[in-house]
User: Which sequence fits this backbone?
């Protein structure tokens, strides 16, 4: 059984963008987790902002905890960074920014994995890649990441019976 997922607005990552504490941020009862990355530096992460992928990402099943990092000047691009290996980082975009009208039907088992009930809002993200030969940016719309921001749970799904592309060219008209 499949249930349609809500298509996020242009700013669906707002709830996740606070994963890295900013100076003067709200104090937390738990000590922040420190993630050190060559790419992103020293990051102090509030424990309640860690996104858990119970089954990992496809090809990276061994990593279950990620944070969202928004480097200055790269908006709207963000990065999912593995907490246990910060050198593993995936550029992501809100999927609806990649393709107007993007509204995949998310399988019910994926919604169950992220703890979303029927009709509950989930964010849909697309993992991006750069083509080595042309330098063009592409989004994987056939394997979106589904995030329940209220529960900080996520999973990647494969839309087997869809016309969405694995390498949707971004910026094309």
Assistant:
């Amino acid at each position: 059984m499949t249930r349609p997922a809500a298509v996020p607005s242009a700013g669906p990552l707002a709830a996740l963008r606070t994963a890295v504490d900013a100076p003067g941020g709200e104090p937390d009862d738990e000590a922040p987790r420190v993630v050190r990355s060559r790419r992103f530096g020293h990051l102090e992460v509030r424990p309640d902002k860690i996104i858990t992928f119970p089954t990992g990402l496809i090809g990276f099943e061994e990593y279950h905890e990620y944070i969202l990092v928004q480097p200055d000047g790269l908006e709207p691009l963000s990065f999912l960074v593995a907490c246990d290996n910060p050198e593993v980082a995936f550029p992501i975009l809100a999927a609806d920014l990649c393709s107007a009208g993007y509204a995949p039907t998310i399988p019910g088992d994926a919604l169950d994995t992220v703890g979303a009930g029927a009709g509950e809002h989930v964010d849909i993200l697309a993992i991006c890649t750069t083509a080595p030969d042309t330098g063009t940016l592409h989004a994987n719309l056939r394997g979106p990441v589904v995030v329940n921001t209220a529960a900080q749970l996520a999973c990647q799904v494969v839309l087997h019976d869809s016309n969405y592309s694995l390498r949707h060219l971004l910026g094309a008209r």
Notes: The first strand starts at residue 2 and ends at 4.
